Structure to design on (320 residues):
């Protein structure tokens, strides 16, 4: 079977959630929302461990919307950006291979890169300021043609809110980062609820993401944090001390194999499944966000999901 057919099937299984209007209470959390429409979409992609992918956007709102699409790497460097638009109840997909092979929208090359894709409502012609429009959903599928594995995730959809946490109505007034902004994802703890034995799933990986929102009257962009520092880790009932990977200082992402963190120091993780808790040990910057993803694969089967986010009042996000 040729890879082109495989890629077509991957594109066909992209999940675009059915639209509905969420209750406000669903947004009073500190976790990443992947189930209801939001005002900004964030996707995580990896073309280091994989070689192709497709991401999609759907506008489930009542109006034509212009969207600023920004692709950044793990150092928080923008690889390229472009402007697109969507009519109400319309969807659009992009093949990440075309960004690589055809050099669409500039000279970016995504081979051997991992990073994030930000999709932000904006003006049609006068700059890229972020506008409130809480009607976007999306998804991404990443695949490896050699191992013939793939996984899919819904995009993280952050709502545009006011200073009291209420959803903002659609408007042409730019978000300013103080009285209006996208929801900040700022956890007390990141929690991996369950993983299978590392001696079987040797390629299980964690991706930890941190970035700072920057709002101006003419532009929205993200930058790297001044430093998350280390993480205090707990595995089941065992104290894992501090995370033995570089701190999130001056770049946006860490992508590490779980066995490199735990397998060499705690025999428990070489023999059975488990869970993991990660507590940031540093103060957050203003408008700084922190969340993560977990990836597992076994033969042709692969899965990906956001880490649970634990605020002061208990766990939210992830699976219920």
């Amino acid at each position: 079977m040729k890879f082109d057919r495989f890629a077509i099937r991957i594109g066909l299984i992209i999940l675009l959630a059915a639209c509905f209007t969420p209750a406000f209470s669903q947004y009073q959390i500190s976790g990443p929302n992947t189930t209801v429409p939001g005002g900004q979409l964030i996707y995580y992609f990896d073309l280091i461990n994989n070689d192709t992918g497709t991401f999609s956007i759907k506008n489930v709102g009542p109006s034509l919307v212009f969207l600023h699409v920004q692709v950044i790497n793990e150092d928080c460097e923008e690889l390229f950006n472009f402007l697109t638009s969507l009519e109400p109840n319309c969807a659009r997909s992009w093949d990440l291979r075309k960004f690589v092979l055809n050099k669409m929208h500039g000279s970016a090359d995504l081979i051997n890169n991992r990073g994030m894709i930000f999709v932000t409502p904006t003006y049609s012609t006068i700059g890229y300021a972020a506008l409130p429009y809480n009607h976007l959903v999306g998804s991404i599928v990443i695949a490896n043609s050699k191992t013939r594995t793939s996984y899919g995730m819904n995009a993280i959809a952050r709502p545009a809110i006011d200073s009291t946490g209420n959803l903002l109505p659609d408007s042409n007034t730019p978000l300013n980062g103080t009285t209006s902004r996208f929801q900040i994802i700022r956890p007390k703890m990141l929690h991996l609820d369950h993983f299978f034995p590392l001696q079987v799933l040797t390629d299980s990986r964690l991706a930890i993401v941190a970035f700072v929102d920057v709002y101006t009257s003419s532009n929205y962009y993200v930058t790297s944090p001044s430093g998350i520092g280390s993480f205090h880790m707990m595995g089941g009932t065992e104290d894992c001390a501090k995370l033995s990977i570089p701190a999130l200082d001056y770049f946006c992402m860490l992508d590490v194999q779980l066995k490199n963190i735990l397998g060499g120091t705690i025999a428990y993780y070489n023999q059975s499944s488990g869970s993991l808790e990660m507590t940031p040990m540093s103060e957050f910057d203003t408008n700084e966000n922190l969340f993560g993803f977990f990836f597992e694969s076994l033969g042709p089967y692969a899965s990906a999901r956001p880490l649970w986010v634990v605020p002061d009042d208990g766990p939210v996000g992830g699976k219920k």
